[in-house]
Amino acid sequence: MTREYSLHMARLSGQSNRFDEMMEYMRQVVKFPGVELNSEERILFNHVCENLIDSCRKPLEYMTEHLISDNNEYIINNLSFICSDIIKLIDDFGLPNSSSVENMVNYYQMMGDCFKCLAEIQPEQKYYAVDVEGAYRSYLKAYNAAKNLHGADPTRIAVALKFSTFYYTVLKTPWNALAMAKAEYVMAAEMIEELPESLYREATTQLRSLHDKICVWEQEDRERQVDLQLRLNQVASRTIVSPCLRRGSLTII
Q1: Phi-psi domain of 238 (left: phi exceeds 0; alpha: psi -120 through 50; beta: other)
Q2: Are 203 and 153 in contact (CB under 8 A)?
Q3: Residues of the chain whose pLDDT is less than 50?
Q4: What per-residue confidence (pLDDT) applies to 249?
Q5: DSSP-H helix ranges across the chain
Q6: Could you tell me if 107 and 139 are in contact, meaning their C-beta atoms sit under 8 angstroms apart?
Q7: Which residues, at least 6 apart from 36, have a Cβ–Cβ distance to it below 8 Å?
């Protein structure tokens, strides 16, 4: 089976929404020695990974929301297998075959997404901390590699969006999320006019998404500050009776 045949069949499978078949063909493309993915092939790889994950995650979210427990364990196990399989494929073949910044960023970001998904679907399991650390290390490697790209490159903005969201939603450190998102937003906004037309539109879309996140997080931060101040005011307004006063109020016979 040639690489070109695998690519052709992967495209056909994707057009028919046969993502299990598409993954098997893209697996052969990724494993092909000495050849890196180009831009179109990265899109195909991301497309099949995201759709396989969503095919399990969306039903699981629906069932959780509506308190449906039937087949939950089956779906979780299937989703765990998909994410672990993607991580192994990238770790064993994708990264060793890659030297370009774009491929390394893309692979590390996808690994981060998979580890994050594993942590989210089974937060009570003993591997939760391992999955969270795996996501953090993967996103960090993607973010550091993306620093070699142009300051307004859409791939760099997308990584900053993913990593800052991970800080906010999983690590629960909104200050880190806002600091990273704001720094990348300011840089990208200043440099976006330098981009070629082929990247400008996608960068604008990613920058708008990053801006929207910053606005939401800042609003939530203001609400937290208001709530904290109200709580402090309530504590300060309470009348606390000193134990000494209570003792002094006793009549000694």
Answers
A1: beta
A2: yes
A3: 241, 245-253
A4: 46
A5: 3-15, 19-31, 39-65, 72-89, 101-121, 128-146, 154-169, 174-191, 197-237, 243-248
A6: no
A7: 97, 98, 99, 100, 103
Give the whole-angstrom CA distance, residue 213 versus residue 50.
21
Place of tokens 């070699």: 148
Characterize 190-212 residue by residue with b for buried, 16 or more Cβ atoms within 10 angstroms of its Cβ, and e for exposed: eebeebeeebeeebbebbeebee
Q: What pLDDT, on the 0 to 100 scale, is given for residue 243?
A: 53
pLDDT computed for residue 236 by the predictor: 81
CA–CA separation, 72 vs 63, rounded Å? 8
Q: At what angle do helices 128-146 and 101-121 cross, to 10 degrees?
A: 160
Q: What pLDDT score does 237 carry?
A: 77
Angle at 57 between CA 104 and CA 201, to 5 degrees: 50
Q: What is the DSSP secondary structure assignment for residue 195, as one 8-state letter? A: S
The Cα–Cα gap between 121 and 118 comes to 6
Supply the DSSP symbol for 252: P
Return the pLDDT at 247. Answer: 44
Nearest to 160 by CA among 175, 174, 139: 139
- Encoding tokens for residue 189? 């906004």
Q: What is the pLDDT of residue 8?
A: 96
